[in-house]
């Protein structure tokens, strides 16, 4: 079977699932949301990480139906959490460039929101800097349509692509996620520290909230907090968890 056919089968046979990585207010205490991360578990095989199939899913276009499933599943999970009495938290879903260019994205999001009845602002869509900068004039229209529905929009992997905050300000973005490559050496490398700190300051001056990803140590967390980073995500706080473990985690942290 081609990988495209295997992916099609994976979707039909429910071999895909989502793991959820909690995000926290910068104090590291209160969970503010989760990022949904795709996993593929073919029967009798080990878990296949997205790094090994996302590119192929994008190239073949399979990311469009897979991405629609991810949007639906993430919102259904949030519905279950809200119904279980958890305080409102955001669920963040990664979108690929291919999805952003697909005419049906806006419709898919509208349908998922209607079906699950979750407050639109609790759905966060993460779009990489390179995906929006690929065809900025097309991206801006899609993002505006999504924003009109009330969803939260985030730029993912910020700092790894080519864009300026001034340009990004033209997009209806709410959050900026500092790429983990700048967080990794934030204590040792003055350049990385300067990039993180000035990104936080500039983002704030433009009215954007900042999420730092890849926080792996207490010292990184402390430094980010000291410089006013709003939210944090990373292995130090929690790894991505299967739905059931994420539920237990969130119930303990509420
Ligand atoms: O979960 P992990 O760190 O292995 O994710 C690797 C990459 O796959 C990340 O860049 C992440 O954004 C991407 N990814 C994870 N889940 C999804 C998804 O549902 N859709 C898309 N488009 N990308 C995803
Ligand atoms: O590109 P994106 O930011 O969507 O990538 C998310 C990926 O980052 C997930 O696959 C997740 O497993 C991974 N990740 C999350 N937290 C950490 C961390 O603290 N350190 C590292 N190295 N990877 C992380
Ligand atoms: Mn992401
Ligand atoms: Na990222």
From TrEMBL:
Residues 1-254 form the EAL domain. It comes from the Bacteria. This is EAL domain-containing protein. It comes from Azospira restricta. The chain holds residues 897 to 1150 of 1158 of the full protein.
């Amino acid at each position: 079977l081609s990988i495209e056919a295997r992916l099609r089968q994976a979707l039909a046979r429910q071999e895909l699932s989502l793991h959820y990585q909690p995000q926290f207010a910068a104090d590291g205490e209160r969970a503010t949301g989760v990022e949904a991360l795709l996993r593929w578990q073919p029967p009798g095989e080990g878990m296949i990480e997205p790094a090994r199939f996302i590119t192929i899913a994008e190239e073949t276009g399979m990311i469009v139906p897979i991405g629609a499933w991810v949007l639906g599943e993430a919102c259904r999970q949030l519905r279950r959490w809200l119904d279980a009495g958890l305080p409102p938290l955001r669920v963040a879903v990664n979108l690929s460039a291919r999805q952003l260019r697909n005419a049906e994205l806006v419709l898919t999001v509208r349908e998922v929101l209607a079906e699950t009845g979750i407050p639109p602002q609790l759905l966060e869509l993460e779009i990489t800097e390179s995906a929006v900068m690929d065809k900025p004039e097309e991206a801006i229209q899609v993002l505006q349509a999504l924003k009109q529905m009330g969803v939260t929009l985030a730029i993912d992997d910020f700092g790894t692509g080519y864009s300026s905050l001034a340009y990004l300000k033209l997009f209806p973005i709410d959050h900026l996620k500092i790429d983990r490559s700048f967080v990794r050496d934030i204590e040792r490398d003055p350049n990385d520290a300067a990039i993180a700190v000035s990104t936080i300051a500039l983002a704030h001056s433009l009215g954007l909230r900042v999420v730092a990803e890849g926080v792996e140590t207490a010292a990184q967390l402390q430094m980010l907090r000291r410089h006013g980073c709003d939210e944090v995500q990373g292995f130090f706080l929690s790894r991505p968890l299967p739905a059931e473990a994420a539920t237990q985690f969130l119930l303990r942290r509420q």
